[in-house]
Every structure is written in structure tokens, then in C-alpha cells.
Amino acid sequence: YNAQFSVSVLGGDAGRTAINADGGNIRDRTTGNTSQNISQETVQEFQLSSVNFDLSTGISSVGAVNIVTRNGGNDFHGTGYFYFRDNNMAAYPALRRNPINPEPFFARRQPGVWVSGPIKKDKLFFFANYEFNNQDAVVTVQPNAPSLVGFIDNPASPYTNHQVSARVDW
Prior knowledge:
The protein has no helices and eight strands. By secondary structure, it is mainly β. The strands form two sheets. Strands 2-1-4-3 form a four-stranded mixed β-sheet, with no helix packed on it. A four-stranded antiparallel β-sheet has the order 5-6-7-8, with no helix packed on it.
């Protein structure tokens, strides 16, 4: 199960939004989310369509997201990047302080690199991306039943992931 995001268009059901990458459907029919993760650095351009009967988006009752990924060319290109976000740059969960966890900790670090270029000039090209996601957070567990007061806790909720994307075009 790979769902990293879901998209609701004009308040419609996010499970009905068509999500396409390079012309292929990547929407999971069971959950309605994506069945393929895409790094933000691999996206060359995207289109959000709220028109239900647009031929470029396929069949959808609410809207669609079309994604075009980067590709290589006759010149070598590349970049390194680092995205960082922590609890000092975010609102409190539910937009209010929780007395059990008044300062909720959160830190996400996403370093990565991509490179593209020719394999055979004017004929065969490549694009490759590597991204490492490292997230540290805590989740407040606060049962409502008085008999479960002993289970109130702020356990750690770490997340790490290596994501590799590659594309070859002829």
C-alpha cells in the first residue's frame, strides 16, 4: 500500500479523481489514492482539470490530475536538493495545543539528487532520481474512555524511505 496523497477536486470524492502519470492511470481503484509514488523532483509539469468530460483526462466523475515526468536530452543535467520541515514551521495539530503534548515534535528531511542526459545522442535518453525520506514525529494517543487513561502516551512515529525513479526514452 503506497498511498502518499489523495486529491479532491471541487469538493468531490477524492477516490473518484483520475490521477495519470505520463498517460498511464496510477489511481488505486480500491482506495482511490495513488498506487505509485512520484517524487516532486521528477515532475516536469502537471495539470489539474475540473472539467469532467475532457478527453485528455480520461473518464472521471469529479476531476483529474495529469502529471508529465522529466526526461533526458542531448545534454547532461543534474541537481542535488534538500527539503526540510519541522514543528517550528507548522501549525498545531487540529490548530490548537493539546495539554498532553503541548509541543508536538515533527521533523522531515528529504535529501535527493537527479541526473539526466543522453545514452546515444539524438536517440536514447535517461532520467534518474534518488530521494531519501527521513521523518521523526510523535503521535498523541488519547483514548476517551476513563478506563483507558493508563494508555495515554506520546509514542515515536518514525518514517524512513528510499525512493528511486528512472526513465529511459527512445
